[in-house]
């Protein structure tokens, strides 16, 4: 696995484990915001949503939008 | 300070609340009911002569030296076996007693070699003292020589057994039984013929069941059982109280010294974690501190293919600072980072993270807790609001049901295991606690002398969450949840959501049995026992955290405790058993990239402001890189410099090939350690470290107990570790001027609310303090969440079982799980450099007889262990401790490199590596793999020092 593939794997793993949360997309976005360093976030934003599960994809889009909006 | 042995009150303390008053030698004394006359006398300062009694074990009444006279009683009862009674009038010194005692002593001495002057225990021998105390001057009997001149047993590497000096007091047997719980010793024969032996008469100590804890040596009143070191250097002349630097139990010791030479480490009776007990590591395995392989001078080199060049400290600091500045200028400040150590003190750890945040200008700091207990931090913070265990160790005395999951306390946390065993066996008529063990392996505690777990659930590795969810299913659907507790303490809606989830039929034990391989009826019985058996306490270890669902498992454990009301008082709770001595402290000190000391997120502006004002810098509000992320970034070419204090990531982190690729891609790897460890093969700068005997500071154990570490000798390398970090910071231009670690603790206390009341002065006064230490709790907090959870309401989190991505298949049909063994510690850098290798000379692979037979493997054969990540070889041992389909090994030896085969799958929330599950294949082999040979060559090349003499 190279770094981007690993990030995709991690995001999916987080999404699977938070799928039972009351608001899974927000929970995943919040988790990534809290624990990933800026470069990791930038890398996955640049990579886009390919290979991401629906929850992970929505969370990444949510974060990317917040980042751009800010 | 001259040498004083620790006080011995003769018999154990009574825990009764009732008191009794009596008169001893004309003086009035009040003691708890159940106290012996001997102890009552000792408490008022009167020492009654004694030989077979000591306060670590129950009295036995065999030597008859402690006789006293009691008004209204006939004869002369033994004071050690006579409990006090109200109004009793006792005399301890009368002419009649003196005569009797002299007679007893005379008999003992007639059967004892009279070579006191050349005896190792001369001056520290109770037989000698008591002969003096009773005024024995001559012996009327012929020396009977019934058991003189017997062969000594030197087999234990740390202590000798000289049966000729034995007085058959049985203190050693009772200590092994009552204090340690191993029952390795027996008495053969009767009267003057009686003889102590380890196991069978044919066994010596090393080959017996003895685990070398030292309790018998401590209890022995003569030189029969004596430390080899005392034989070698003589008896100590002063002592300093300090804390063990090995495991998270955090035992307190007296370092007993002769000049600057350490004679022995003796467990301290007033130590609140260990209460006078110890294990082989802390008690004896400190020889590494003076090992010849210790590096004492800084060394540098341009490239890792160059030999090392020794330099002075000044040059080392100047060079290191210039390299860090060069890299920061060239690649940006985020190219730098560091790793703090769970082996170092709180103060040292705090300084390293401060250097990174304030000096490097980023949050790229992580700690070795990443690879062990980071899920504990995440899981307990989410559910309870604080990243720590809820109890003190004493709490186990009030536990009725002990649930151990993914921990092997007799090997990993031996002193606490002994305390657990005491509780499991019951005491003084109180029945023992019940035991549930959830572990793929039949660990020693499942079945040991006088202990048998009520339930052992040998689950398939990687299915912890499924097992815990099934237990929750039983508790909720059978109406065993403590709803009153939940309504009062937890968020009811979250509970209802969780209860509804766990109640689903798919989470029943029957339905999950094919996944977990745990018998459903057995699981139901275990769940019922935990929920209804009285005070239930959960103890867990790395078998919980080191999984892709490590954080979920911690939360599932927290859910169970809340659902059954087992939180917030003595005897219950959720208790992580920490691996290294200061894992708790390293986490507390802000070693994680996303949080500052006291578990406050770096994005929290108020907290940041507090630190910024104190430190005079601006802090980055974004989280930094965790260790695996650092290695990825290094391979990507953007992470270039690493300051690694007291950790050997190459050996301890998963997927060695990936770690070495990351390290090899960096331009400046700084290793700050005692030895040229495996990571140092890739280092450019080596800063020699100091041992725990050479510095002042504090460690925090698994009970949140902050304990002093005291310097007993000058650092051989010249500087304490905190001084090294400070000098490096100064070289980088930071204005740091700490003159003593106490000033660092003052800064920690000033910036961390849970440490507000901590200072070295307070610690000296109290001995130790359990955080939070605040205005409300100035003496610390033994038990947490007493009147409600730290986060407010306890939070139930739904934890759905997600199978790991690491799956067995035709190529890799077995599951490998890893662990540790009593005599060795972590990557073994310390213990391998002690006599402890006598017990564990190499890592072995445990394999079930069926799997072994399929592959034609016998015990002692070399086998190849291969996974998707890599392969290594080691020797096999065939045993049914592991289930079919499961293999097990330890990771204490660098040559084995068990992590060559572990993968880089990790916990979803924290990236804690999944050490406990790797799909593997085993096959016959005739020697080391190519990797092992190449690595061996690299190590030899990399350890050259320019003088031409290899350092190792
Ligand atoms: S060292 Fe410990 S285990 Fe060994 S015999 Fe003595 S008390 Fe028992
Ligand atoms: S070895 Fe020491 S403690 Fe054990 S019976 Fe002999 S004298 Fe007593
Ligand atoms: S149990 Fe742990 S802290 Fe105690 S002596 Fe052994 S290694 Fe040291
Ligand atoms: S000390 Fe009481 S009988 Fe030995």
What is the alpha-carbon Rg of chain A in Å? 11 Å
Structural class of chain B: alpha/beta
CATH hierarchy: architecture of the largest domain in chain B: 3-Layer(aba) Sandwich
Radius of gyration from the alpha-carbon trace of chain B, in angstroms: 29 Å
Helix content of chain A: over 70%
Silhouette of chain A: globular
Q: In sequence order, what are the helices and strands of chain A, one letter per element?
A: HHHH
| Quaternary structure classification | heterodimer
* Total beta-strand segments of chain B: 36
The coarse silhouette of chain B is globular
Task: List the bound ligands.
Answer: iron/sulfur cluster, FE2/S2 (inorganic) cluster
The residue-averaged pLDDT of chain A reads 88
CATH fold label of the largest domain in chain B? Rossmann fold
- Spatial gap, N to C terminus of chain B: 39 Å
Structure description:
- The complex is a heterodimer of chains A (70) and B (952).
- Chain A has 70 residues and is mostly helical.
- Chain A has one domain (3-67).
- Helices cover 77% and strands 0% of the residues of chain A.
- In chain A, helix 1 packs across helix 2 and helix 2 (24-35) crosses helix 4 (54-69).
- Chain A is globular.
- The mean pLDDT of chain A is 88.
- With 952 residues, chain B is α/β, with parallel strands linked by helices.
- Helix content of chain B is 29%, strand content 16%.
- Chain B has a 7-stranded mixed β-sheet with strand order 13-12-27-26-25-14-15, with helices on one face. A 6-stranded mixed β-barrel of chain B has the order 31-35-32-34-33-36.
- The longest helix of chain B has 19 residues, at 313-331.
- Chain B is built from 29 helices and 36 strands.
- The two termini of chain B are 39 Å apart.
- Chain B has 5 domains: 19-93, Ubiquitin-like (UB roll) (Roll), CATH 3.10.20; 159-290, ADC-like domains (N-terminal domain of TfIIb), CATH 2.20.25.90; 299-362 and 603-734, 3-Layer(aba) Sandwich (Rossmann fold); 390-576, Dimethylsulfoxide Reductase, domain 2 (3-Layer(aba) Sandwich), CATH 3.40.228.10; 814-941, Barwin-like endoglucanases.
- One iron/sulfur cluster is lined by residues 175-176, 180, 182, 184-185, 198, 210-216 of chain B.
- Chain A: Its EC number is 1.17.1.9.
- Chain A: The chain crosses the membrane at residues 44-64.
- Chain A: Keywords: Membrane, Oxidoreductase, Transmembrane, Transmembrane helix.
